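Sanity check

After download, print the first record. It should look like this:
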Amino acid sequence: MAQIKRIVLHTKDVMIITGKSERYSRDLIKKMKEHYLKKRHQYITIKEFSDYLGLDNNEVEKVLF
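Expected structure tokens:
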């Protein structure tokens, strides 16, 4: 059976990738939502996160999966 990959990013994921605190990670997600004009209930995708921080999407996925 194929492994299911997520496309949305959570606070814990940001903490793992950046090595920063939970508070910093929540604030960063909030800034990204403002940047991408997302509503409070909408998610940030891994691709949006990568683009926003200028990171390689494949490298970010390797860390998460």
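If your output differs, re-run the checksum step. Summary of this record's structure: The mean pLDDT is 93.
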